[in-house]
Amino acid sequence: MRRRQAAVLTLGEIMEKGQGKSQISCLCLLALLSSFIWICLLYFHFMVLGGTSVTDTSPELDFVPIEPTSMKSLPLDSNPSPITHSVTVHLPEDDLGLQRDRVVDNASKDEITNQVKQRERVITYASIDKIPNRVKPRGVAGYASKDKIPDQVKPISNVAEPRPLGKKKEDKQNYPFMRALRTVDNKSDPCGGRYIYVHKLPPRFNEDMLKECKSLSMWTNMCKFTTNAGLGPPLENVEGVFSDTGWYATNQFAVDVIFGNRMKQYECLTNDSSLAAAVFVPFYAGFDIARYLWGYNVSTRDAASLALVDWLMKRPEWRIMGGKDHFLVGGRITWDFRRLTDQESDWGNKLLFLPAARNMSMLVVESSPWHGNDFGIPYPTYFHPAKDADVFAWQNRMRKLERKYLFCFAGAPRPGNRKSIRGQIIDQCKNSNVCKLLECDFGESKCHSPSSIMQMFQSSLFCLQPQGDSFTRRSAFDSMLAGCIPVFFHPGSAYTQYTWHLPKNYSEYSVLIAEDDIRRNVSIEQLLKSIPAKKVNEMREVVINLIPRVIYADPRSKLETLKDAFDIAVQAVINKVTKLRKDIVEGRKDDFIEELSWKYALLEEGQYIGPHEWDPFFAKKKKDGESDTDSSSAEAAKNSWKNERRQHS
């Protein structure tokens, strides 16, 4: 039988048959690969990213900053967990305030050691969950969760936020006053750190008062005293006591206007408040309260003050520092602005007790020893020079004068004030052959004559300056203008008042005799005679050199090189605000004790508040829950008004 012939396949059939088997194999391989990938993804998701199925057996560690000077402060686990996390932490650089990205591995001792050698700070964490979202230099950290805050670390504000990669660094502290603060270091700008921004107040707070000048005082027509930019009418030099120019019959309470007009001539005014070292508020606070002191209720007395702070607090300039960079002038004693209660019988208004005003600095002719928001500036004198040459000529004239009296006194007794020593002073002067006396009582016009007063001061070596109705009196500055050495009987009459304008070492330019010594009948004449002549000459020279600092130059001109009372006060305010801003930036806090405020300006560098020899002068006695000193000061302010009435009666 014939065998069947084998089938012969063509090349195309063979390829078609083999292709079917290859397709089945590829599908199987793809399925296996897909399954493997899914298994890997699930494993990575649950086991690595989730972290919930892995237990970290390492001990929990608080973060510890490593100071460059010591490696001993870093606790390292001798048996570290095999699970570690590398985290990126952004730390501000100590010296430049710059932030850097750093990688910290809590299992790598070598890396930590290397970073310490490079004077870097390293923070170690045992768990990524405990990495703080904010880190502050000097080892203080802010935490996202308060329950994780160690006992020794408290949450703080204004800490540096971590900076993402590629983002430009911003200022370490982005305070709104930083632009102004940076101008201090701009040596190419003559006004750097000295710019003043002046608020444009509604006219009811200043100019409108001058238009109604007859109402500024109950018994004085203030209109003539507001002329010549607040200097008053010119004084005639009939007796040759004054110089030919620059002398005016200036009212002792006219500083509001004089200071405001001097500010208009200030060389570093700016319309850009972001550059301002301080902000001036041209409110005529003294004129405002003067018109309402007698016969008006407390609502009327407080109305302008309340309206002013309401206006200021709505301004963007106020929000920069909450008013702590603002200052204003009240040309009266501080007690006129410190009414203790809202009883109608209480004196003055409550401007300086308003919360907003507590942040501002108020310049007054007499400040409180027990409060921190007012500062003493000199009373205005009769001399307002227009140029330096006028001052130099006057100083030379005072040096050459022959002074025939050892001491003098101009004033009236205070029979109603049992604490006053004026009666004893007047008696001693009357009984001395070397004392000149001008009694200022009813009908004694010479005592209120600028010419008579200045002539007496110019002819005396020492001028007695006891307390008036309050701590201070204008006469102290008139006497210094005449080159007469002032004799004080209470440190609150000058030494704790005018610390911006007068030397801290009071013995350089004055004499202090305790009031109790006068009550014990200590001889003023003998005490002053005991001072060596050389010392007297030295003291008088210091007084004469102080003249520019205690006078207000003519607001319509400007002194060339000399600094007057206005210049000294403005610079002191700028220094105060600048220091405050720097303290804020550096995080420094001042534990200021307001009732001891009189002590701070007396401190030398490195000294601290403590017992002082003048403590008995300023001890505040409490009476029925109220400060006896505050109430007596308010009564003194009221008496001051009564005596002003007597002067013009």
From TrEMBL:
Stretches that traverse the bilayer: 24-46
Alphabetical UniProt keywords: Glycosyltransferase, Golgi apparatus, Membrane, Signal-anchor, Transferase, Transmembrane, Transmembrane helix
GO cellular component: Golgi membrane
Any one Pfam family match given in the protein's UniProt record, by short name: Exostosin_GT47
Topological type in the membrane: Single-pass type II membrane protein
Start and end residues of each Exostosin GT47 domain: 191-526
InterPro entries cross-referenced by the UniProt entry: Exostosin, Exostosin_GT47
Single Gene Ontology MF annotation: glycosyltransferase activity
Subcellular location: Golgi apparatus membrane
Region of interest: Disordered: 619-649
Signal sequence, renumbered to the chain: none
Stated family: Belongs to the glycosyltransferase 47 family.
Protein name: Xyloglucan galactosyltransferase MUR3
Organism field: Sesamum alatum
